[in-house]
Structure to design on (291 residues):
């Protein structure tokens, strides 16, 4: 029996020489401008400054401070309102009423959504009520609120609840229904309790829609509050930002009118970029549901 030897033939087409010298970590350091451009707060600040510049240029070109005051005149009126305490007092009054209506609206929206998620009748009820009342402007209920609750804070809170309730309930219910069936099966296979199933599966899965509903409800509440204060005026021993805007308009202090509007805008920016953005980072982005 002859001795068989394996003869290895080197095939050049399969021989590859890899040169590793001269290569390091492929990473380009960011320049200072690229680091600044990556900072979202700076970009938004520049946008605001650009809008303020357009405001100033257009107002000076128009040349009619009774129609459209300059940004510098508005900023001066805003500062004077802060120093005199008129704007802080009006802001505090508005925020106090706003939070009452907003929180009550959230509680009612949670109850409606829980009932709709638990039973088919509840789902039909929520869909029917949402289709009826969500298109109805809250400000249209002011005459009824004045009859039912009088010229007081109760009427404003009533219309605020209407502004918040249906948008939050609709988005929350839609978020629960859009939770992936795979997530639902995983929760059931893990043997979670009903509370654990809701807190660990349904709420995280639906939270992007819930957060959207919270933002929409907040915006609707602000609009309704300012409009209601313009109609109701001063009540319960004080007046809010809507009443401040109305009073300064009657006195033809147009820069102060714009200062009141600017206060509402600044509050909206702060809430959006501090409160809601923090919630979004700690929930939706942290869970990998948004980049």
């Amino acid at each position: 029996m002859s001795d068989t030897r394996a003869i290895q033939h080197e095939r050049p087409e399969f021989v590859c020489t890899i040169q590793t010298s001269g290569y390091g970590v492929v990473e380009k350091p960011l320049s200072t401008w690229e680091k600044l451009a990556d900072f979202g707060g700076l970009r938004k600040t520049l946008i605001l400054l650009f809008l303020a510049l357009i405001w100033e240029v257009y107002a000076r070109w128009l040349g009619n401070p009774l129609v459209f005051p300059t940004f510098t005149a508005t900023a001066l009126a805003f500062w004077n309102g802060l120093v005199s305490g008129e704007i802080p007092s009006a802001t505090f009054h508005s925020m106090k009423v706003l939070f009452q209506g907003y929180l009550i609206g959230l509680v009612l929206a949670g109850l409606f959504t829980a009932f709709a998620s638990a039973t088919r009748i509840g789902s039909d009820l929520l869909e029917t009520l949402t289709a009826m009342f969500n298109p109805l402007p809250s400000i249209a209920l002011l005459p009824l609120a004045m009859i039912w609750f009088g010229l007081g804070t109760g009427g404003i809170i009533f219309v605020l609840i209407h502004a918040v309730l249906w948008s939050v309930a609709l988005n929350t219910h839609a978020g629960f229904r859009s939770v992936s069936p795979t997530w639902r099966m995983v929760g059931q296979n893990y043997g979670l309790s009903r509370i654990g199933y809701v807190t660990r599966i349904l709420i995280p899965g639906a939270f992007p829609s819930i957060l959207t509903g919270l933002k929409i409800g907040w915006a609707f509440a602000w609009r309704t509050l300012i409009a209601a204060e313009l109609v109701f005026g001063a009540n319960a021993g004080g007046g809010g930002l809507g009443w401040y805007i109305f009073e300064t308009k009657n006195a033809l202090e147009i820069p102060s009118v714009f200062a009141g509007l600017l206060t509402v805008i600044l509050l909206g920016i702060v809430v959006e970029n501090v409160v809601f953005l923090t919630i979004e980072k700690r929930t939706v982005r942290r869970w990998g549901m948004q980049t």
